[in-house]
Amino acid sequence: MYNTKIKILNASVRLFNENGIDSVRLQQIADESEMSVGNLAYHYKSKDVLIEAVYERVFDEFNEIFRHYLKRPDLADFDIQISIYYTFFSRNRFYLSEFFKANNSTAPHYLQWQDCTAKMLLQLRSRLQFMVRKNELLPEKEPGQYELLAEQIWMSLVFFIPKSNMIGQHYDEISYKKNIWNLLRPYFGPDGLEEFRALIVPVLF
């Protein structure tokens, strides 16, 4: 039963990404899942119940990303987390589209999104502070410099894929990651630049 539910959720996300939630019917999800509508309804009795299950998985995956934080004290650790963000946002493209269709205060699961956003920003700020302490990043030239950089990185992590889709620009994991590292490059000190050239440049640039 568990594998069947996973199959249904995966099929739902694929269709939601392609068509948007409102346009997808249960029959389409059943067809994509290679089962009858009756069998689908046995596992999820309505489309609303299925949508709720999809959102629940989205936020479970989102929160799992936060556990991949500073497992190693080097730039490669952040590169791994960027890859995980890419996988998450490319796999769940429908969510941001659905979120911004509605007024923010009434959008589905708005509070969960706010919570995840706050966690992302907190981790990014903490990571930048850690990189300053390790002399990977230069000290701030003015107060709030790295607060602003954390917000810029957050914007790129979240919106690079929908922006690329909107303007018809090709993207892949490499371009996604390069975009993030290019935001950081101007702030590297000598130690950070050396580590960047040793660990990141050979695989990305």
Features:
mainly alpha; elongated; Arc Repressor Mutant, subunit A; 0% strand; 205 residues; single chain; 2 domains
What does it look like?
With 205 residues, this protein is mainly alpha-helical. It is built from 11 helices and no strands. The longest helix has 24 residues, at 110-133. Keywords: DNA-binding. Residues 2-62 form the HTH tetR-type domain. One of its GO terms (molecular function) is DNA binding. Pfam families: TetR_N (PF00440).
Secondary-structure map:
Elements: H1 2-19, H2 26-33, H3 37-43, H4 47-65, H5 75-91, H6 93-99, H7 110-133, H8 145-166, H9 173-184, H10 190-199, H11 201-204
Helix pairs in contact: 1-2, 4-5, 5-9, 7-8, 8-9
Number-wise, the strands total 0
Radius of gyration, Cα only, in angstroms? Answer: 20 Å
How far apart the termini lie comes to: 45 Å
Largest sheet, if any?
A: none
SS summary, helix count: 11
Determine the mean pLDDT: 91
SSE arrangement, N to C: HHHHHHHHHHH
Helical content (DSSP H or I, runs of 4+): over 70%
Q: Could you say which structural class the secondary elements and strand pairing correspond to? A: mainly alpha
Please summarize what this structure is:
One of its GO terms (molecular function) is DNA binding. With 205 residues, the chain is mainly alpha-helical.
